[in-house]
Amino acid sequence: MRIGITANPNKPAAVALAKRARHRIGDRATTVLSTETARALHHEAGAVPLDAMEADVLLAIGGDGTFLYALHHSAIPLLGVHAGTVGFLAEVDGDQIPAFDAAVERVLAGAYFVEDRMKLATQIDGENLIDATNEVVVHTSQVAKMRQFEIAVDGIPVGRTRADGIILATPTGSTSYALSALGPIVEPSVEAILITALAPFQVTQRAVLVDPLHTVSVRVVAPALEATVVVDGQGEHHLAPGTALLAYRSPRKASFVRFTAGFFQRLRGKGILPWRDEPVGPEGAERVDLPP
Fold it and tell me: Which residues are annotated as catalytic?
């Protein structure tokens, strides 16, 4: 078995966990370190860039930015270990050392499954951008300047709206930037393209979910000025006046290593679900009896 390890080199806690994982794995599997991680661990022999890494599982340690970066550069199933400020995509809390050690042991034993999630492929003027795991955002290039955006589905305009920008998100991204724009929380197994306006002039505006078999495009129509496209908060691209951003379901997937199938359980305690994490009452939660 080959286990890749990548960690945010700017977070001492992430680097320490990478070192712990490497020692725990020992000679029970082949460990492959990403270039940045190997440099942080002062063990650069055999290190490879994420784009060239070959492994069965990629242990990614950091925050959501670390996970998204890894998913941009590798198709290896990713086990996210939270050691940052945000960890919606994480499966393991790095602050819980026993849980971290147990996760490494489960990977070594093959006691996990792989969950594939939808990505968004994007194009500008026929040029492919990197796939988005969370979202692609079209926003004004000038701060605090609204524009009128035209949205089209399968090349047919369906409406225009005045806003600071438009967010096209995956179900995975529904708990990210789109959530702050009052978009819905979508279970990842429900594939869709979420269209959410960013700070719209019409405050009652709703988010829209589109079948992922469609294509969705966004362009600035008034005034006809340039805009900026940002993919997963990491890559910026220029959108010329009159040019549209095109988005559609990617043939590639974001693959996550999972130990449980509990999407809602992973969100508990993060303060984003629209109901209480725990039921009222001193006895705590009780399992609801399901019909036979």
Answer: 64
